[in-house]
Write a structure and sequence with these properties.
mainly alpha; SP0561-like; 2 domains
Length: 239
Amino acid sequence: MDTVDTLAPDTPLADQSLGQIAVALPGATALFRRLKLDFCCGGQVSLRAASEARGLDLPALLQDLAKLERDDQPPAESQPGALIDHILQRYHQVHREQLPELIRMARRVEAVHRDHPQVPTGLAAHLETMEAELLEHMAKEETVLFPMIKAGPPPFVVHPIGVMREEHLQHGEALERLMALSQDARPPAGACNTWRALYAGIIQLSDDLIQHIHLENNLLFPQFEPASAAAAGCGCSGH
């Protein structure tokens, strides 16, 4: 079993193991699964060797992996429209991609390792709850609040913003529960690649959601509400 959890900067990605890539590059597991590349039990095999064995186009595969490297920089100008577009592409779209894969891996880890003393019992169910709540929250922003802001916000826009701020506090509480269930996303010694990739993905989800909420609470929303409301905080503990 491969126990290395970081990419080697001096080694081309093609020559690194499936296990290394799965753990170090959240989102790679879904791609590997679609292509039937075994990153868990067969995780010691290099990407190059695995793609050759399955007759895959290695340059195209490397391009797909490169797309998983996401740009975290918000627009230089905090114009509402540009900031909203960045939030939609970098965070809303990404949350919709990352949560189903995390749920799938959590179910597998809980089933395969159910007798392990550190198995994260209840993790998949909690991730499912988080997904449902986030999907509902993002739909409200995409169908009501964001179009309202882009069209030229009316005076009562403060009310829907207040609702979003309150839900952000709930997301922060859900993140705290997520980290508690996963022991701060620290896999136990000897954990398989799926378990380690799951926890790497949880760290990425936590970082993404905290940054997502920060951009809305501290950059976007204050442009349309009194200063007292803008001081409410994001509700995230910064895990």
